[in-house]
Design goal:
By secondary structure, this protein is an alpha+beta fold. The chain is built from twelve helices and 21 strands. Bound molecules: flavin-adenine dinucleotide. Flavin-adenine dinucleotide (FAD) binds next to helix 1, helix 2, helix 6 and helix 12.
Length: about 425
């Protein structure tokens, strides 16, 4: 990892017996990484990870379809949404995806690259990632307290915190909150940590699902279930600048999924939560504009005038999509290209490039891969991840108001924010 300085022992001046030096609440990606990076900098310090779940790392195990997309070769602040991009940029620069890949190599997880710069473990098993993190944390002497949900964190005097853990009190000199957001609540991330942060004086930016499949009104999508193709999606909310996204789209029995729909979901939810009217349009031919489609039609008419409309469109798009689009425009699919009227060409071009996508919602947190919103970045120090509202408290990972697009960016945020917090924690113990 970058710039790990000579390790420091914590200043152990007066703390009651049994006091934990750093209590980490939440043992997911961000919590485990915070424990490891901090323990490496503070050998001899007493670190304990508290997690409400019976087994640690449930989300790591299910991530990336069971393969864990650990990070991405090319990570930038513009791959993220939420709070101040300069904050996000500063954290990502402190620990880049190259640094994260080197860290995983160091703990025995070799990565390989796939489409779009996505990095996966060579084993193609997320278990490899989780096991390596747990082994490294244990090697460094981090205490793992499973089935130990923390309900309340209270600063008890100027330098100590009291944690309520299943009716018992634990004392810690520093606390790192790493409780995640609300996505996949059965994994243990149910937003309880946001209530703790709020209780400690933090403003919570309203949360919504992110990276969730989208539910559509009507029946257009039903016969297309299982069909996938490249598309572009434009979301226009109120008077705001429209969001333009491009990627693979998968039609399903309830609506749309696949990277394009997942990436779009946070924008739809954010608009709704702000009370803005939102319109979504799909382009089935993302490389073409209206004049381009017109030119293509005219070329087709010249090349094969006796081809049917449905036959011609099936060479542009998956045939099920072509059939559904022609049916929706009410044009006879058997029309020969030579006989296609100008008005019908225009209607088809409109359907192909500006298809109204009637989004009524998403599949919610149970299917979301991330959470948008969370603890505002305004109250966190970007150089240390320490709270400005509550000194000695650090915040990392998905519980912050940062959400990345699909492709390994959310884990990278966990690793980077953990690294910055570990730097802040270790410096906080320096006399
Ligand atoms: C299905 C799915 C697939 C995904 N795939 C990818 C992927 O391939 N690549 C990628 O970059 N991202 C992926 N993500 C997103 C990524 O998993 C998360 O962004 C990341 O795990 C967040 O890490 P975290 O440590 O902040 O939170 P979490 O992983 O949610 O961990 C929080 C932990 O805190 C514990 N906890 C919560 N409240 C308390 C409490 N009060 N007391 C004690 N413990 C508590 C929970 O039990 C949990 O273990 C995926 C997410 C899902 C749901």
């Amino acid at each position: 990892m970058p710039g790990i300085e000579p390790l420091q022992a914590p200043d152990r001046s007066p703390s009651p017996p049994g006091t934990i030096d750093v209590a980490i609440v939440g043992g997911g990606a961000a919590g485990l990484a915070t424990a490891i990076f901090t323990a490496r900098r503070l050998p001899g310090a007493r670190l304990a990870v508290f997690d409400g779940a019976r087994r640690l790392g449930a989300k790591i195990l299910v991530s990336g379809g069971g393969r864990c997309n650990v990070t991405n070769r090319d990570v930038r602040a513009s791959d993220y949404w939420g709070g101040d991009r300069r904050f996000i940029d500063s954290v990502l620069r402190a620990c880049s995806s190259t640094d994260a890949a080197a860290f995983f190599e160091e703990i025995g997880v070799r990565l390989h690259e796939e489409d779009g710069g996505k990095l996966f473990p060579e084993s193609n098993r997320s278990r490899t990632v989780l096991d390596a993190l747990l082994a490294e944390a244990l090697r460094l002497g981090v205490e793992m307290r499973v089935e130990q949900r923390v309900d309340v964190v209270r600063p008890s005097d100027e330098s100590l915190f009291t944690l309520n853990v299943r009716g018992r009190a634990e004392t810690a000199r520093r606390v790192a909150l790493a409780t995640g957001g609300l996505s996949l609540p059965k994994s243990g991330s149910d937003g309880g940590g946001l209530a703790i942060a709020s209780g400690l004086g933090h403003r919570i930016v309203p949360t919504t699902p992110a990276l969730a499949p989208l539910v559509l009104e009507g029946a257009f999508h039903r016969p297309l279930a299982g069909v996938s193709h490249d598309a572009a999606l434009t979301l226009a909310a109120g008077g705001a600048r429209p969001v333009n996204l491009r990627g693979p789209l998968l039609w399903t029995h309830f609506g749309v999924s696949g990277p394009l729909a997942l990436d779009a979901s946070r924008h739809w939810h954010r608009a709704v939560v702000q009370g803005l009217p939102v319109k979504a349009h799909l382009s089935f031919l993302p490389d073409l504009d209206f004049p381009g489609v017109e030119r293509r039609w005219l070329d087709e008419v010249a090349d094969r005038p006796s081809a049917t409309l449905r036959g011609a469109l099936s060479s542009w798009l998956p045939s099920a999509v072509a059939a559904a689009l022609v049916a929706a425009t009410l044009i006879d699919p058997g029309t020969r290209l030579a006989h296609l009227s100008r008005d019908n060409r225009r209607a088809l071009a409109h359907a192909l490039l500006k298809w109204d996508l009637p989004i009524t919602g998403s599949r919610g947190y149970n299917y979301a891969e991330a959470t948008a919103g969370g603890v505002t970045l305004d109250e966190v120090d970007r150089g240390t991840m320490e709270s400005k509202a509550c000194r000695g408290l650090y915040l990392v990972g998905e519980m912050l108001d940062v959400d990345g697009r699909l492709g390994g960016f959310n884990f990278q945020w966990a690793w980077s924010s953990a690294w910055v917090a570990a730097r802040g924690l270790s410096h906080s113990f320096t006399p």
